Amino acid sequence: MQELDETLALSKLDTAVKKQEPFVSYCYAPHHIFKLYDLVMLEEPEYDASKWTMVKPTDDPDWMSKSSVSTAWDNANVHVAWSTSLDDRAPEIARLLQNVKLESADISAWIYAMAVEKKTPANTPGPGFRTTRKKYRNGWASDQPVTGGAA
């Protein structure tokens, strides 16, 4: 097991792909590598906190022997937050923020377009960003009542 800087790990992955060699690693999603490469996700047991003890190398030199991780990582949650005063000042915007939901595959594709293809939403012709923007805009702009945002 190696702990590598992300740039170095991505370079090793790229080298392995070019040499058609196997490569096993952890990577969070969304990430552009899921669009850049034809990756296979390994199946692993669902996250179980009772089977997850991770000691960081920076916290203990004996981190490896003190760590035991036998399940998948726990899901990370991303929350959209806004001032509750926005509910009164701009209810349409609060409603839009309340309805924000993003799909990991779309975010990975956006990151790929920006990081690898050096595109921006403003300079990208064709369906790319615009298609997903329209998909999300239609869902986010529903007339559901605002129930309050995060402080």
Keywords for this entry:
151 residues; mainly alpha; 2 domains; two-stranded antiparallel ribbon; 38% helix; 3% strand; disordered C terminus
Short summary:
This protein is an all-alpha fold. It has helices at residues 6-18, 33-36, 63-66, 86-89, 91-98, 104-115, 128-140; strands at 52-53, 68-69.
Largest sheet: 2 strands, antiparallel
Instruction: Kindly provide the radius of gyration, computed on alpha-carbon positions and rounded to a whole number of angstroms.
Output: 20 Å
For the record, the count of structural domains works out to 2
Order of helices and strands: HHEHEHHHH
Question: What topology does this entry show?
Answer:
Layout: H1 6-18, H2 33-36, E1 52-53, H3 63-66, E2 68-69, H4 86-89, H5 91-98, H6 104-115, H7 128-140
Antiparallel strand pairs: 1-2
What does this structure look like?
- With 151 residues, the protein is an all-alpha fold.
- It folds into 2 domains: 6-69, no CATH class; 86-140, no CATH class.
- Helix content is 38%, strand content 3%.
- Mean pLDDT is 82; it is low at 145-151.
